[in-house]
Amino acid sequence: MMNWPDFLSRRLAERQGTSLWRHRQVCHSDGRLLSTADGQYLNFSSNDYLGLSQHPQIIAAWQQGARQYGVGSSGSGHVTGYTAAHHTLEQQLAEWLGYSHALLFISGYAANQGVIAALMEREDSIIADRLSHASLLEAAMHSPAQLRRFLHNDVGSLRQQLAKAGNGKTLVVTEGVFSMDGDSAPLEAIAQQARSTASWLMVDDAHGIGIHGDEGRGSCWMQNIKPEILVITFGKAFGLSGAAVLCDKHTAEYLLQYARHLIYSTSMPPAQAVALSAALRQIRAGEALRQRLRSHIRYFRREAQHLPFALMNSETAIQPLMVGDNERCSALSHRLRQKKVWVNAMLPPTVPPDSARLRITLTANHTQYDIDTLLEALHGSGC
Ligand SMILES: Cc1ncc(COP(=O)(O)O)c(C=O)c1O
């Protein structure tokens, strides 16, 4: 019989010394700059796309919420953890995005897991874009439904997979903006395919919400579709953390009865909900920030044409540079750090094999000078 220490040592030895070994580092970031014990860097790895994590009015709202409610929610929303702050935020989100209901979750990961686990049964099918986030694919793999993946953003492949679905319910799953590629899903065509087979569509718009569309309403709004299930997360453009599921009344009632990640988990602190309402106000009024971000994206893409890496098909804040080889990608990230520029290398299994990349993210907090510094560092990285 294998004992526990042997099991751990064996599995650690398999990874140690390979480029897949994951590190954490103590960081302090104000969004634009990031400091560690080794120095200060220009931060091009943050998902704080609008720079709201440091916004004084949002910080003040969190402080005021903590004075009013204390620092924790004291329980699941089904017990004592659903306050006026949670209720107000849900209503504001639903009104903003044109849904009758919004349900708050503690994270995007929990929302995706909770929704798929609650909705899907043995006879059902999940047809997911093959590059969907780990939280979606893992939930699908753990559910009793059959998982089929369609080729990335390929509506023909989706159609083929839909034709193979069984007799149960079918859920089509995709993202608005893909977290590792930065490209956008053809949502209108995907929604049409789903509708033509009476399937439901679930869109995770973690990276599109706050950025795309009128008042930052996201990818679905921009492409004029309304999926049955829309997941938005607050760890990116909102600058905080947490998530919400937008849906109709019937679905919300069902999730309140069956989504175990809601029922058996402490709800977010009410002060966080107060801060999220303040962040929502900034997002709705944040056209100047969105324009600044768009102008950085255009500038970066124009100047990065001259780099010896393939730019990806992305018009969003996520601008990965495809490197391919794991070791080379890690070495490039290390060399950028020596030039005081922080860009994380994304390696398999986070991305598909042989597609290691530098995941560059731009934010409204950067200046054009910062982007020039990044480009210079990339030019001089000996690639
Ligand atoms: C597309 C997507 N969905 C879900 C998540 C998980 O969200 P959270 O960080 O709130 O758990 C992420 C996080 O990185 C993501 O990129």
From TrEMBL:
PROSITE patterns (alphabetical): AA_TRANSFER_CLASS_2
Keyword Transferase: yes
CDD domains named in the record: KBL_like (cd06454)
Superkingdom as given in the UniProt entry: Bacteria
Cofactor(s) listed: pyridoxal 5'-phosphate
Catalytic activity of the protein: 6-carboxyhexanoyl-[ACP] + L-alanine + H(+) = (8S)-8-amino-7-oxononanoate + holo-[ACP] + CO2
HAMAP family xref list: BioF_aminotrans_2 (MF_01693)
Name under which the protein is recorded: 8-amino-7-oxononanoate synthase
